[in-house]
Amino acid sequence: MRRVRSNHVFLNCPFDERYKPIFEGILFAIFNAGMGGEASYKQRKVVYWNRAGGKFEDVSERLGPPVTTPEAARGAAFGDFDNDGRVDVLVNNVNDVPSLYRLASRGNHWLTLMLVGTRSNRSAIGARVRCVAPGLRLEDEVRGGGSYISQNDLRVHFGLGRATRVEAVLVRWPSGAVERWSDLAADQILTLKEGTGTEAKWEPAG
Description:
single chain, mainly beta, five-stranded antiparallel β-sheet, four-stranded mixed β-sheet, 1 helix, 15 strands, 2% helix, globular
């Protein structure tokens, strides 16, 4: 097995974690893939900031290199590489070492949930998760797959902004069961096992 060296890139992003895009918590990123012979054509990456309300802002130039450095890249996996509550991105470069984009924002709070199914599939793929905090009502899903030949972190990440506690987390498991966990502290990675929460009712988002 060949050991793969990676480039570490720190993104010092002052963005508000309340906005839940894909960078799976902070940014919505489109990584342009190279085209041509063996996908060797190099292009710069484009990064959009989710400003909420259906509006996105191109912040690529604000981030600068290496985002704006042309690379031939295929596939991106999103996950908290170092378990610091900030979602990082690993980009697979063609015929080169991968690039690890490590988010380095500060000041906001977060909650990361690892779901474990018992009646449902163990990875809880397909589970819907709702997070309620002061001024926030966020919803996400445990998804398999992601970008080209890539698997994102199966843990669900919620950016909480200034909220230091979560009023409730509701999980609708693939089995159909709905459970609730209440009064949770922010800034932690928490494992939720099917069958250990309080039985609840799933109300349609509105």
